Amino acid sequence: MKNLRTDYLRLLEGWVPSTHAWMQAPRERPDLLYYGDGTNGWGMQTTQKALGAFAALAAEPELDTQRCGLSREDLLQRSLAMLRYTLASHLSGDFHTTDSDTTRWGHTWISALGVERMMAGVEAIWDKMTPEDHAQMRAMLISESDWLLKEYQVRADPISPNLPESNMWNGAILWRTALLYPDAPDAAAYREKGTHLLLNAISIPSDKDSTRLFHGRPLSEWHVGANFFESYGCNHHGYQNVGYMVITLSNLAMLHFTCRWLGVQAPEALYLHMEKLWQLVRMCIFDDGRLFRIGGDTRVRYCYCQDYLLPVLMLAADTLGERCDALERGWLQQLRTEIEANGDGTFLSTRCELFVERSPLYFTRLESDRAINIAYEVLWRRRHNDFATPHGTGGYEPDPTFRERLTIWHDEYHGSCYVRDPRRLASFTWRASEWPQGMCVPPADSSMAEWRTNMTSNIEGDGFYHPRTLVSHHETLLEGGFVTAGRFINATAGMLAEQIDREDTGISTLAFAALPDGATVVTLQFAKAPKRCHLSRVQGLKLNIPNDIFNHCTRDYSDTGAQLTIDDKLTVSAIYGGEIQIYRPPYRQIGLRGHEPWYPERGMLHCDEICIGLQLTPHWYDKDETILDFGAAVVIGNKAPAAEVLALEEGLRGVRVTGQDGRGYRVILNIGDTELSFEDQPLAPANALVLW
Asked: Counting runs of H as helices and runs of E as strands, what totals does the chain give?
């Protein structure tokens, strides 16, 4: 285990030389230092994370000073200078941020976050801080805690306002202050309010009836609302968000390991439902350590929430005894791959070159996220002997069913289904980040996964944006699989013509079935024009295959027209509706959601797009004219399944596919507007069934 910690240490040391260009001292205070732009909000948190990373190195007994280019003393002094900038520019301090001569940070719903993230590093240099540093630290923490105690309302809702992560970090900082300064006048009140927030972080609907006792009171009396559905689905930022499940657990980890540092037991409230949320998060991790984001992502791929998975993996090891070293080694290799591609010591400068040029704040924010999480690996593994003896959860008793491995999962609100097999990860989510989106990939190769409207076709009009409106969706779990179907309206917006800003461009009906053979996904899709309209691009299927630095920008495609095998791992076949074509944009097209109109050719991940019915030139469609009508199968491995089109009445589409288990599966979709039947089984409009 020592080698794993040392490997992460080497990455952090190698990052240090790249930070020099991004560090500045305020002109009025040359004794202070900030990393990034020194502004309030994310600028302050960027400095706080950087100081945590530098402090971890300053306290590291195996430090390679030649590799990082700074002596231990230099690292310590930079850490202290960043800490002093943090403390001096707080509302309790005597300085300001770089925004203006009067701007100071603090007293917001998110100001505790950067503090929580930096504290592991601060703990590492705790004995190197001066009495004045400690006095200012106390003043800052008490100031933040007083504001939370008196001004901050405990809220929770599974849809909006959804606050699992902020309730976790705000509850944690209240407990942190009470533990560090038990003589503070309101220490008992901090613990009370902190417990209230913690119990409404990973909260679920059934908590409102729970008699489980916390601090002498039943959970039902503490309960304000559910931030998760009973399934542990999380509707953060308006979509099924695996990333914020991770963020919530990561902040839990920070207080857990602080309590270990202090030699005290963490409050039981901290761990409420941790094990059940971890059970779902564990299901959503590729074998190589990357998150399988059921609902996709709106931000830079493989960053932020992905970075904060590292403390969660260590938390699982230390509290639940679940060794996750293989996952950490897989992620370590992916970090190395990207660092080597950059060639300048940074973590992200190649894929995020747009940020280097146009948003230094965003670039340094992402760099410091990665740095602080690597620092946790360095600090906690050394401090706690690589979790050789798990610490546990004190008086909190985890639900033992968390040890059962989830193989199938469904969340009704998001219309999200997921099945995990030894050879296949298959999912579909309607309320996703860039929805709807489906996926079928091997568990061992996360580089093949990109969720952006994946496998749901693309219809674009003449505008800058191409929003979709959900009409209906329905899911049915099968034994070892699922089928989902629904309908949505395609539109185009941000048009050039006067008086026309938005118009509908297509009515799409879609079925997506993960067959119970552990290998195959079948999709049937139909779209027609709602009126005479002008479409600039149509891409049926649009299976995204990332082709970027993580696979060394090389894909092996074996093409026969009706089928395509990718890297001998995944085979796509067109059952009807056209041949398979590959579209390769000459730029990284996967960027932040919503930024494409301004920087359409400067995203952060490149994908090849596998299509059935590819139209890249403008074309007119008459009212009710078919835009796309196809059926396709995606199979793990290098062999396409035997498949045939079923002869059905008008309004139905159907195929028969032989699964890898030898069984014949029929997938039937009602593309019409009235109820139809198949073999005496009623089938509602935009609904599907699977028979075998």
From this structure: 15, 32
Cα–Cα distance, 18 to 15 (Å, whole number): 6
| CA 348/CA 364 separation, integer angstroms | 10
234, 164 in Cβ contact below 8 A?
yes
Q: How far apart are CA 663 and CA 619, in angstroms?
A: 41
User: Cβ(275)–Cβ(202) under 8 Å?
Assistant: no
Q: Does pLDDT of 248 surpass 80?
A: yes
**Given this model, what pLDDT does residue 534 score?**
97
Share of the chain above pLDDT 90, in %: 96
Phi and psi of 664, rounded to 5°?
Answer: -95, 125
Could you give phi then psi for residue 256, rounded to 5 degrees? -55, -50
- For 358-391, what is each residue's pLDDT tens digit? 999 999 999 999 999 999 999 999 999 999 999 9
**Token reading at 313:** 């993996």
Calpha distance 59→341 (Å, rounded):
29
Q: Is 351 helix (H, G, I), strand (E, B) or coil?
A: coil
Whole-number Å distance between alpha carbons of 682 and 365: 54
Please give the mean pLDDT across all residues of the chain.
97
Q: What's the rounded Cα separation, in Å, for the pair 619 and 519? A: 37
Which range has the worst mean pLDDT, 123-137, 578-592, 596-610?
Answer: 596-610
**pLDDT single digits (tens) 433-444:** 999 999 999 999
**510 Cβ neighbours under 8 A, 6+ residues apart:** 436, 456, 457, 485, 486, 487, 488, 523, 524, 525, 526, 669
C-alpha distance from residue 54 to each of 50, 192, 208, 273, 376 (Å): 6, 34, 44, 33, 11
Whether 2 shows a pLDDT value over 80: the answer reads: no
647: pLDDT strictly greater than 90: yes
Q: Which among 614, 606, 568, 569 has a CA at the least distance from the CA of 590? A: 606
Amino acid at 542: K
Record the tokens describing residue 300, joined without a space.
């830079």
Q: What's the average model confidence in pLDDT over 523-547?
A: 98
Give the number of other Cβ atoms within 10 Å of residue 63's Cβ: 20
Dihedral sign of CA atoms 23, 29, 30, 32 in order: negative
pLDDT (tens digit per residue) in 548-565:
999 999 999 998 889 999
**pTM for this predicted structure:** 0.97
Bridge partner list, 371: none
Dihedral of CA 132/17/339/36: which sign?
positive
User: Phi, psi (5° rounding) for residue 660?
Assistant: -75, -5
In order, the DSSP letters of 58-72 are HT-TT--HHHHSS-H
Give dist(CA 569, CA 574) in Å, integer. 17
CA 200: distance to chain centroid? Answer: 21
SS3 125: coil
CA dihedral (586, 592, 597, 599) positive or negative: negative
In 351-507, alpha helices (H): 353-358, 360-383
Q: How many whole angstroms separate alpha carbon 118 and alpha carbon 56?
A: 10
DSSP letter assigned to residue 552: T
Q: Considering only CA atoms, give the Rg of the chain.
A: 26
Q: What is the DSSP string of 299-327?
A: SSTTSTTTTTHHHHHHHHHHHH----HHH
Distance, CA of 118 to chain centre: 21
Spatial CA neighbour of 72 closest among 85, 53, 91, 59: 59
Q: What are the DSSP calls for 650-685, one per residue?
A: TTEEEEEEE-TTS-EEEEEEE-SSS-EEETTEEE-T
DSSP 494: S
Q: Determine which helix (DSSP H) or strand (DSSP E) holds 179, and give its type and residue range.
A: helix 164-180
